[in-house]
Amino acid sequence: MRDVKFFIGVAVMLFLGVLMLFLYNQSIAYEEEETRKKHIDALLLTLDNKIEEITKVALTSSVMLAQNPYVMRCLEEKNRAVCVERLLEIKQAMNATSLFESIKFHLHTNDFKSFVRLWDYDNPVEDDLSTFRGAFEKIKKSKKPQKGIEIGRHGMFIRAISPVMKGYEYLGSIETAVGFESLNEYFKKEGIEFYVLMNNAQKSIA
Question: How does the average pLDDT of the chain come out, rounded?
């Protein structure tokens, strides 16, 4: 009888030991999962803040350029050579600050055609942008800037577009586009691989 009680006691002790070990492992796994979730949440918050910072810089740039008399004049006269010359001067001045190093400028006509892509100014093709970029119609109607991440002919960028006005006349718009290189560099320093993914259905646009 004593042997039976002894074995029962040992069995109970073993069961309790296994149960405690299981609960301990579950607790560790839960804590690790919670730590991972907090880390991911922190990274997503950082990403959101970084994109917001870049968007503000892009928006400030496009709003200021939309009020520049040279930009207004070149859209009004539709003189590409003058536009390119003036925009290159402005871009060179802006390059003095690291905030504007990777910025691209794009001028659009009042009928939503590409007029000058400053990074590709030797290309005179005025392709129609209205078929795949809906922001232009909104800007022309509201006379207000638009911002966001959008796909264009040259890829996906963080974009800010401002209307260029002469009084009540809509001359066109100017866009400031920023790539994701700075975000990639930032996260790389943190040991994180950063990728920008695009829906395959948009491949024909970009």
Answer: 81
Q: How high is the pLDDT of residue 131?
A: 76
pLDDT at 90: 83
Instruction: Name the one residue in this structure whose structure tokens are 């586009």.
Output: 177
Q: Tokens 């006005």 sit at which residue?
A: 165
C-alpha neighbours within 13 Å on the C-beta side of residue 25:
6
> What token pair was written down for 81?
């050579």
Residue carrying structure tokens 């994109």: 51
Could you report the per-residue pLDDT of 36-79, keeping only the tens digit for each?
777 778 888 888 898 898 899 899 989 999 999 989 998 998 88
**What class has domain 49-187+194-202?**
alpha beta
Alpha-helical (H) ranges within the chain are 2-66, 69-77, 80-94, 135-142, 181-189
Residue 54 CB neighbour total at 10 angstroms: 21
